[in-house]
User: Fold this.
Amino acid sequence: MIPGIYSAATAMEQAAKRHELIAQNLAQLNMPGYRRATLKQQTFESTLSEAQQADFAFDSLGTSSQGQSIDFTPGAFERTNHPVDFAIQGDGFFAIETPNETLYTRNGAFHVNGEGRLVTADGHPVASVGGNLTLPPDSSPSQLQVTQDGAATVNGTSIGKIRVVRFSDPHQLVSHGVTLFRAPESVTPQDTDVLVHQGTREHSNVQPVFELVSMIAASRAYEAAQKAMIAITSAIENHTNLRG
Assistant:
């Protein structure tokens, strides 16, 4: 394949992927604890260098990416005074129990299910250290008190401690759904002493103005690559007709 066409095609592909991620970020703008996704891209020089080191091939030319990356910058806090809203001040994650594994999230907009258990919006129990974070019968969420170290009590009775962990490199986590993350087997969560704030919700870290500007840039990059492909194709057609 002619390198110019391949370069234009890969540039269009990467611009389309950037556009998709930006649209995803904007769709989750109001999702508590959401972390914006970005596309890690390589420069032409680094791509060419890698290609030369590994048996030069056309498949290595053009624009390339290193896959999706997550921006773990904290979001803004909002005081809601809702007793089952929680936010973490620091680099920790809430541990969430699912049928198959433990997952992690910054989304502390929890609920109390019919059994009195503290759960996520999807119904997964919030993990605890001691106890099971279940409210006693005939009690209400308004009676739940959680200290900044995560210890939970209802009318003075302990029901456990919200489990909060940290990771030395959170970028090793893998997205699982909208606000949940999975830790690979080689990554071990660590205990942490970050602060847990009850009655507070952490917003997503998506900045709409920045995302809209990025979307315009991605659209223009796509259009530029498309025009380049049309120009190259036209030149090839003209050259072929002349030779014919």
User: Anything to note?
Assistant: The two ends are 20 Å apart (CA to CA). Confidence is low (pLDDT under 50) at residues 56-60.
